[in-house]
Amino acid sequence: MEYYRPFIVFILLISVVILVILGMYYGGNARSITLEDTTDFILYQMKVTLNSIYHKITGEDLFYIPPLSEKKKFKYILLKEIRFPQIFGAIIVGITLSACGLMLQTLFKNLLASPYTTGISSGVLFAVTLVIFVNSIANLFKIFNIDEKIVAGWCGGILSLIILIIIALRVKDVNGVLIVALLFSYLFRGISSYLIANGKELSILEYYMFIVGSLTRVNLNNLPSLTIITLIFVISSVFLIKPLNALLFGESYARSFGLDVKKVRIAILLLTSFVVGAIVPYLGLMAFVGIAAPYMARSVIKTSDHRWLLPTTMLLGVILMLIAHIISVKYWVPIYYLYGINHPAQILPVGSILDIVGGLLVIYLVYKGEKSIKIQ
């Protein structure tokens, strides 16, 4: 099986490319945009990007790019400003939250560990809930000249991180850390539920769209910051591969090889809290991808070696997100229009589709004979 792992990763990469093209094509209700328009747009953007880089280095153009017709220009604006950011958001979530789930599962030796169950997402959710339902707190965050939900999300992530680090330093047993973190998660959710019960109808709808996760909040202005966050996360994850592999054999074994388990534990919690606090305010909660993608990766790649498991998990997370996005915009929206339902969100949130698709896939894998996928 080891010899086929590069081939499996290659197939997953090809699948991501195909789904990106299909996502751009199906990512809206404009029927005038064809599959050819989508592929032409992708090639056009690649040429423009390469031209820009080459021009900065040499002062000359690498390609001749003919001017666009008005019709094509309109289509390209639609693809660039509406469809592309949503696809990019799906890729970001797929990479970051699935990898966070994998690292936390390895750390806690628990297949159900994820940013959601460890309280990180709940801390972010609690802070964003305060902003949505308490006007005075929302006005306080507006002084930063940034979307108040994003600032609140960072603050919630930092709060969760401080709690987790204190627990990690005081509690020796890693399962004890998970249990206490889960209890804090329920505490945050309890306070959030109280605010919802006394909230206005419009605020409840906004909260619902956030808690289930949606890609509609992503725009071109968000992309640079999301890209930087993801690059920092991916590079940091690569440096954690060896410590994660050492943790597979237990903390005692890791210590015998000179690994400072407490520092690794804090590094993983710090990294996952940072990325969840930065990503969730933009895109909402996509809790299930952090559980489903690592499980699927172990089933597909047949190893617990993070040199293979980490990239496979990221790719499967992206695939899950892109499939969920395509279903939400291609197959769910026509149902609303067919029955004349006026849905304020226009499309079903991707998080809802993700829970359904991911859940069915994991159940199928278990049913087909993956009797005991263990972290070992």
Description:
The two termini are about 15 Å apart. Residues about 335-345 have low confidence and may be disordered. Helices cover about 75% and strands about 0% of the residues. It has a single domain, classed as ABC transporter involved in vitamin B12 uptake, BtuC (Orthogonal Bundle). The protein is built from 15 helices and no strands. With about 375 residues, it is mostly helical. Helix 1 (about 5-25) packs across helix 2, helix 5 (about 135-140) packs across helix 6 and helix 9 (about 225-240) runs antiparallel to helix 12. One of its GO terms (biological process) is siderophore-iron import into cell. This is Iron complex transport system permease protein. It holds the Pfam family FecCD. It is found in: Cell membrane. GO terms for molecular function: transmembrane transporter activity.
Features:
single chain; 376 residues; mainly alpha; ABC transporter involved in vitamin B12 uptake, BtuC; globular; ABC_BtuC-like
Oligomerization category of the chains in this entry? single chain
**For this structure, what is the CATH class?**
Mainly Alpha
Q: Rough shape?
A: globular
Number of domains: 1
Mean pLDDT, all residues: 79
Uncertain runs with pLDDT below 50, 5 residues or more? 334-345
Pfam family, one: FecCD
Membrane topology: Multi-pass membrane protein
Protein name: Iron complex transport system permease protein
GO molecular function: transmembrane transporter activity
